[in-house]
Specification:
Blueprint lengths: L1 E6 L7 H15 L3 E6 L13 H4 L9 H9 L3 E7 L7 H9 L13 E8 L6 H14 L3 E2 L8 E4 L6 H11 L4
Parallel strand pairs: 1-2, 1-3, 3-4, 4-5, 4-6
Helix pairs in contact: 1-6
């Protein structure tokens, strides 16, 4: 099994990337092949609805989105980690989602498993709406959404390293993959 971990945070080395690294270690120790795509170190420009992707095989813009699409296509599972920005995913992750319109051509992600992990300052302060946005994107792509056997997906608050409940919600997602 190949899993792609995507951090939607623009901030390097912070909570989202700590959760990605925790997930990477857990999955690799379980024998899973893992790749990461960290938007804090990537350039993914906004979609401008030019419709190039409707009649061509790819996007008119040439940036790190191509790396994401290659990784996504070759993965069995995609986990998206996003901090909560005003009750939703980050602008960086939304840009990636919008650019992924090209992946709907032939439904290239159809049947792949996907899950969302939201990181916020309180468990009821936008984590659910952030997960909802991630889930909607996955459903539009034809993916199969998994939760954490308790709720919508992982919800982590404040500092990842001290949030036991948040780590358990993330583990609830990860354990379904091994």
């Amino acid at each position: 099994m190949k899993v792609l971990l995507v951090s939607g945070s623009p901030r390097r080395g912070q909570n989202s990337e700590k959760a990605v690294e925790f997930s990477r270690k857990f999955l690799e120790e379980s024998g899973v092949t893992v790749n990461s795509f960290l938007l804090s170190s990537k350039k993914v420009d906004f979609c401008v609805a030019c419709d190039y992707c409707k009649s061509n095989s790819g996007c008119a813009k040439k940036d790190d989105f191509l790396e994401f699409s290659d990784l996504a296509f070759s993965s069995d599972v995609i986990l998206f980690f996003s901090p909560v920005y005003f009750g939703n995913v980050t602008g960086q992750l939304k840009a990636l989602f919008d650019r992924a319109r090209v992946l709907r051509k032939g439904f290239q992600l159809e049947g792949k498993l996907g899950a969302g992990i939201a990181l916020g300052h309180s468990r009821n302060g936008g984590c659910e709406t952030t997960l909802d946005s991630i889930h909607h994107w996955m459903l539009i792509q034809g993916m199969k959404v998994i939760g954490n056997l308790s709720h919508y997906g992982g919800t982590i608050i404040d500092d990842f390293s001290t949030d036991e409940i948040g780590r358990e919600s993330l583990l609830g997602v990860l354990k379904q993959l091994i």
